[in-house]
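Let us work through a complete example step by step.
Step 1: write down the sequence.
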Amino acid sequence: MTPSNPDPDFDPGRAPGPERGGGVPPGEGPPAEGGMSEAGPRNDPPKGWGKGPLIVIAVLTLLVVVGLVGYAVMVHD
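Step 2: predict the structure and record it as tokens.
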């Protein structure tokens, strides 16, 4: 039994590509990974938290601590 051709309209003599067996000619495909300047991780990623969020967290923590101490003093009396 001979294997059947999955694409009966395929003609290897008329297929695109330099070797006539299919494929994409050089220069017509997407660039390689090294050729994409915007690809990959940033060179200067931010490290740690910004000053603004840290100040907000510190102020909220201080308010909670003061509130708990005040509540403890009020309940103790």
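Step 3: interpret the result. The two ends are 99 Å apart (CA to CA).
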